[in-house]
Amino acid sequence: MGMSAGGSKGSGGGRRRRGGRGRGGAISEINVTPLVDVMLVLLIIFMVAAPMMTVGVPIDLPETQAKAMNSDTQPITVSVNPEGQIYLQETPIALEEVVPKLEAIATTGYNERIYVRGDTAAAYGVVMKVMARISAAGFKNIGLVTLQETQN
Q1: Residue 71's pLDDT band (cuts 50, 70, 90)
Q2: Strands, E, within the chain: which ranges?
């Protein structure tokens, strides 16, 4: 006639399962695997999409035989569309505001790289006025952006 201290075998003996779930209780664990999967997919999507996000002013650039420049940082871009409107990055500005705004956003001072993008249908004089103002203000690294000429 021996009795067991744990009680009867069918009652579970007071033991609880790991994870805080008893018999028929709620699951208290969080499964992080789906969360990690979703985050990795989003990371890949943003890594692929980020280089495609460039300056959004639609301009038909002229083609030249010049080689592409290597660059580590993003330059400041000034664009002139076919109607002669001037844009700093994607924001329209007046010709008189080009230099003060450039001075305000230039992080490396007058050594900041500035790219001028002029549409092929834009007036040559407007593009040259923009470049002259930027140069007269003391900026040294000014470049014209073109497309590479396709070989036919």
Answers
A1: low
A2: 63-64, 76-80, 86-88, 91-93, 113-118, 141-144, 147-148
